[in-house]
Amino acid sequence: MDGSGKRVYFSGPTAAHNDAALALRPPRGNPATVGAEAISPHFEPRRWSLRSDAARPFIHLLCLSTGQASVRFAAEEMQTWSGPSLVWLPAGCAGQLDIAAGAAGHLLRLRTGLWHRHLPSSAEPAYLDLAGTEAVLAFAVSAEFAAVMARSIAAIAAELENPARRGAVSILSAELTLCVLRFWRLFADESAGDAQGSSAEILSRFRRLVEERFHQQLRVADYAALLGVTPDRLHALCTGALKRSPSALIQQRIVQEAATRLETTTATIKQIAFALGFKDSAYFNRFFVKHTGQAPGAWRKGVSSQRTAGQARAALDFADWP
């Protein structure tokens, strides 16, 4: 119990206080990438800590069927919604999620930077748009739409509970894709009025292209041509809005992917280098050292040692794209 007398639920894959907390654990003991749980009506309000160590790396998608829910950002700043509604909460955006007494719904958790691995390539535009937003997204929906979303999240929860069942991974992927695409359609429809040629739109399209092609080792001029702008125009937009050149942004995305693969896979350094478009693993080593101060092998050993000691390593954060 916390100081207010309300039960505190700690969201995330290690949530010992959540009876319905579910987790999908990938190989090598890494943290869960997806979690799902049902929120049944209760006579007491409930609270999820969104900035606990377990919850902080996760995006939360709340499908509120009935009742009220609120998110507290600071001591006096909060936002409240009534069901049926859908709420997208970027990782670390708020301190706590409160579900009022009698409210019901479902909660989906997506680990930042990893959850897209459950999606097919056809869903990449949805992932790029949603993963890039830093704002809370909330939409009032019909009861029928909320029920469809709730069924998908419940299906994900069922597969996570029995991951060894035949077809579990495929069913989870299919239901998660449906959830994401349905929510993205709401988000995309609302954003449709933005000017296609605006600076923000060009930067957003540049980000999507980098996500799609960073492993192809394209030049800045190649990206500019795909965007229909000059390299000078792209450089001016990136340095003006993001304080970094297009080349620096591309390189940082490659470093982030390299670090993620070193941490979460058993692929050799040579395999990772080739997957990221490096024809020479020695050049990949020099590239990685330049940006992190460590060789790939040393980085992997350091992460493994920190995990064994129960320490969290400092994340490579390149999330300040538009």
Automatic annotation (TrEMBL):
<keyword id="KW-0238">DNA-binding</keyword>
<feature type="domain" description="HTH araC/xylS-type">
    <location>
        <begin position="204"/>
        <end position="302"/>
    </location>
</feature>
<dbReference type="InterPro" id="IPR018060">
    <property type="entry name" value="HTH_AraC"/>
</dbReference>
<dbReference type="Pfam" id="PF12833">
    <property type="entry name" value="HTH_18"/>
</dbReference>
<keyword id="KW-0804">Transcription</keyword>
<protein>
    <submittedName>
        <fullName>Helix-turn-helix domain-containing protein</fullName>
    </submittedName>
</protein>
<keyword id="KW-0805">Transcription regulation</keyword>
<dbReference type="InterPro" id="IPR009057">
    <property type="entry name" value="Homeodomain-like_sf"/>
</dbReference>
